[in-house]
Amino acid sequence: MRTIQERALDLFDERGFAPVKIEDVAEAAGVSPSSIYRYFGTKEGLIVADEFDTWGQETIETVLDGRDPVGSLIEAVVAYEAPRTSAGDSVNPSADIPWRRIRYFFTEPSVRLAAQASLDRASQLIVPILASSAALSPTQARVVANSLAFGYFACLEQWYLDDRARPIAWYVEEGLRPLRELSQK
């Protein structure tokens, strides 16, 4: 999966997103177009897909603490980002795959929509966890789940706009602080 994404990103970076066809990516990655459709669904899926897409309800339940969803999201981001950053706040320049992917979230409207659809699916998996483990009504659980998912997206966007000035985890912690404070009252 990663090799296919890397070849796709190489082509998108070289030619632009719109001109590249699935067949071009398949040829560059040495796979059939049907394999790309099977793994990613669409050209946008080549960018949006990541290891979190394979997470089901059980995996999310082990990562997400319904009593502190913001804190557990921050912990997950820190754990994901740890191999990608060096000591301190500077970004490891050899860890460019997330950057290469995420910038398309904010420069290509169809990729942005695909990312938002993926976040919506993730929030649907979060709702029952919040409803069962926190003192939240179903409506409140849905609002918190969507705030968490789309708040995370807003943090990624600010990271992009700031040209990766700090690690993603810093933006998640800073950006979701108001939500965390509200959920702890």
From TrEMBL:
Species whose genome carries this gene: Amycolatopsis rubida
Gene3D superfamilies reported in the protein's UniProt record: Homeodomain-like, Tetracycline Repressor, domain 2
DNA-binding region: 21-40
Residue span(s) of domain HTH tetR-type: 1-58
PANTHER family: HTH-TYPE TRANSCRIPTIONAL REGULATOR BETI, HTH-TYPE TRANSCRIPTIONAL REGULATOR RUTR
Pfam hit, one: TetR_N
GO molecular function: DNA-binding transcription factor activity; transcription cis-regulatory region binding
Name this protein carries in UniProt: DNA-binding transcriptional regulator, AcrR family
Keywords in alphabetical order: DNA-binding, Transcription, Transcription regulation
InterPro entries, sorted: Homeodomain-like_sf, HTH-type_TetR-like_transc_reg, HTH_TetR
Domain of life: Bacteria
